[in-house]
Design brief:
The protein is an alpha+beta fold. The mean pLDDT is 76.
């Protein structure tokens, strides 16, 4: 994952499915339509976000 404190770029094999999974965890993302497999994530300064992101990407519920 690459980015800044508020934004990250994340590579995934299925960006549309990953976007839906992240949305269920209240994590905003945007699919790059011209670059298959990449998501742009918005991460607010909430200290709980990294754990929510990890849980959402692994498919576990917290």
């Amino acid at each position: 994952m690459d980015g800044t404190a508020l934004f990250r770029t994340h590579g995934t094999g299925g960006p549309v499915a990953a976007q839906a999974q992240l949305a269920r965890a209240a994590i905003w993302s945007r699919v790059f339509p011209n670059s298959a497999g990449w998501l742009h994530l918005w991460l607010p300064g909430d200290k709980a976000v990294p754990a929510r992101l990890e849980a959402a990407l692994s498919g576990s519920e917290e």
